[in-house]
Amino acid sequence: MNFEFTNEKTGSKKASRRQVIVTGAIAGLTTAFGLPILGEKAQAQSSWKANDIKVLNNALYYEHQAIWAYGFAAGKLTNTDVGKAVLALALRNQDDHKKHRDVLTAAVSSLGGKPVKAESEYDVSSYIKQGEGNVDSDVNIAKLALALEIDAAIAYTLEVAKLKTPKFMTVGASIGTTESAHAAAIRATFRTLGVNIEIVPAAFVSPENRSAWILKV
């Protein structure tokens, strides 16, 4: 028994079993192999989205912390020339962190994630215990801000490499660069106040040369 199709020359309907078998085989392969491939692709996409959401939310957490730290420290500064200089810099840096927060929040949301919320306060006691700043004087507050900015810059350097989405890698690298600039700006403020230090003390901002950037109490 033959299957039928329309012949272009005669207009008659005729088809061979071979054509039907080949067509059926292609359809079978599509069903057998196509759907699992699509499923694996969807699963992989879900995996990298979850990865990027986690990395971006970690970064967002530290932006919230930086915004809080600058706001908290601002209330501790004196009305002296040093206090005013530190406050002016703190407010500029804090404004950058707010912009970073907004970009990271939008990025997490665009991936279908839930952006981490800001906490009412953050613990910076570990920095104080290590002598990397304090809230008992204008100078020590600036040192604490420096330590936080250095760690933020290092964190971005390490975390950006974990992202899967190219555009978010670019965003993360850009923010990390700004954190390094904040650290240099704080050191420059110390320089203008008469402290003889290098504004950029090392060629890299990394765990290996972190101590070169920090100013101890």
Helix segment tally = 6
Rg computed from alpha carbons, rounded to a whole number of angstroms: 29 Å
> Architecture of the largest domain, according to CATH?
Up-down Bundle
Q: Which spans of ≥5 residues are poorly predicted at pLDDT below 50?
A: 1-12, 20-34
Q: What's the CATH class of the largest domain, please?
A: Mainly Alpha
- Helix content class: 55-70%
Question: What does this molecule look like?
Answer:
Strands 1-2 form a two-stranded antiparallel ribbon. The chain is globular. The longest helix is centred in the N-terminal third of the chain and has 58 residues, at 17-74. Mean pLDDT is 83; it is low at 1-12 and 20-34. The protein has 6 helices and 2 strands, in the order ββαααααα. Helix content is 68%, strand content 3%. Helix 1 packs antiparallel against helix 2, helix 2 (81-110) runs antiparallel to helix 5 and helix 4 packs antiparallel against helix 5. The protein has 217 residues and is mainly α. The chain folds into 2 domains: 3-36; 48-213, Ferritin, core subunit, four-helix bundle (Ferritin), CATH 1.20.1260.
